[in-house]
Amino acid sequence: MHYGTGRVIARGSLSPARIALLTATAFLAMCAWVVIMASSQAHAASGLTAKASTTVPAKSYVKATVKIVLTTPKAGATKKVRISVAKASAPTKSWRGKTRKVTLRWSKGAYRGSVAATAKKPPKVTVKVTAMGKPLKKVVKAPLAKTTVTTATASLRVRGGKHPVSVTVSPAFKRTVKLQRKSGGTWLTEVKKTVSGSALKTVTFNLPATKVGTSKWRIAVVKTAKAKLGKAPFTVTTVDPGASTVVGIPKALVVTAANPGRLAASIYPAFGRNVSLQEYNPNTSSWLTIDTITTNKTAMVANISFALPDRAQGVTKWRLRAPAVAGAYLAVNSSAISVTTDLGPGPLRGIKNFTDLEAQGRPIVIAHRGGSDRYPEQSREAYEAAAATGFVIEADLRPLADGTPALLHDASTARTIIDVNGKPVERAINSITPAEWANLRIRPAYVTGIVGTTLTWEQLLDEFGGRATIAAEVKTAALARRVVDDVADRGLADSVILQSNSQPVVDAMTARAVDRGVSIRIRRLLTATFFSGDPAQLNANLAGLFGNYYNEYLGASLAQTSNVLIPYVQQNGFDQSLVIPYSVSEPDQVRALLMTDGIVGFSSDDPWYVWSGIATSLGY
């Protein structure tokens, strides 16, 4: 047998005592080795480690997941550790001032487990345990949450114009996201946006047009108290943009009320472009989009045509604009087109009083509020246009603070009046002095239209009396006497119709005209209230109107004129030839009525258009 001494001892050469001694020595050596190994193992295993990672599941708190490993000799399948969150971390209610016990389970030679702690910011977590009679403690500070920024591609190839770039950001609670371009060694912010309210958010930037060549860009999500800085770099290669053209546009165009005209052109390339009709706005010195047409997505060339909207008499400027196609073509504008609107003559051009009008059998066409579809409502500019083209100019009278009649339909200025800077004015008309009224302005009829000049009743008579026929609606009884006196004093009784929807005001004006010894035409306006109620009440209203005092002009809506007034007077033998319906907007609405023995005219917000549609059929 060999014992490591370099000698071979025959089995039979040892005495029993010698054999016993050797056996005892070997046993003691083995026991010592076991003790040493056990002690070494116990020393190595008595350790505690903890690692934390952070997420942001909601805008009000973060979640730290702590993974714990306890290396100690196995003493059962599980082991308890104590967990607490530092007060300075602003823990959520479930962790506030509390210590929790967490169970670790034996796996792969150690006790392992995890715990999730929540706080307003990445928390400091303390782990405590006693292993083999020795207290162990580990403090771990949760890191900021990782910010993930994902783009669709790491490189873009564009052909002029702006190009959309979309990224997803997580976490996205109260984050500032920047589109940055590298210039030299510095990242310059081109655009920044703030996102909020979601763990995951998609953000889209329009990449600015860049010069031909390659440039470096990135999306940067700014670091917060909860999450790290996030970055997503990408490169942009810009190549020469393709050419775009707009052809077939005239340099000038003349349109009328009957034919407002169209602008037609060919766009190349088309491919689903949103082509806009734009009008130059002199009020803001800018181009305003009026209408848009989307071309066919697969068409190389598209022929498009826009209907021009109604405009006031005069010259306007227009153009067509085809925007850039991202990654393909640059934007293109057509040259400016000069459009002249010629509203033409009305039926009363050159006629200055109602005696001549009635003698010639001309229809009474009233420009309601001056023709407010095309001009600022009840403005000097509207009345100039209506008078020049041959219509009756209509106004509404309300008293200013000192009783001076001013031209305004509503009791408040809110709908139509602005100051000299274009800001809305909201005041009761009877709180405004004449000096203040003179410094106010009237909203344009449309965005690019002219701003209007306010007038008083006296100014209207002085500027237009004797050169145009006038219809004035008196809104309050307090003005009845004064309005009649103003007409009588100026000798304009034959050029003016006074009207009201109130029978007492009509009676007051009629009585005052008698007192002054003048014959002024009076027009009673019938509102919906007059026609409401049951049939018996309506018949009573009509009988009283026609049977007792009606011998002047009458006004009613087109529908009430056609459905009620004309049938009534025909059935009862009254002369209905003094009815002037209002709310007329289309030629077909009134053409048949004017060609029959019945209606003497009509009132419209766009008398130019309505008259142009019926003048030829009436022989004008």
TrEMBL record:
UniProt cross-references to SUPFAM superfamilies, sorted A to Z: PLC-like phosphodiesterases
GO annotation, biological process: lipid metabolic process
Superkingdom, taxonomy of origin: Bacteria
Keywords: Signal
InterPro entries recorded: GP_PDE_dom (IPR030395), PLC-like_Pdiesterase_TIM-brl (IPR017946)
Signal peptide start and end residues: 1-44
Database matches in CDD domains: GDPD
One Pfam family here: GDPD
Example GO molecular function: phosphoric diester hydrolase activity
Ranges of residues in domain GP-PDE: 363-614
Name under which the protein is recorded: Glycerophosphoryl diester phosphodiesterase
Organism expressing this protein natively: Rarobacter faecitabidus
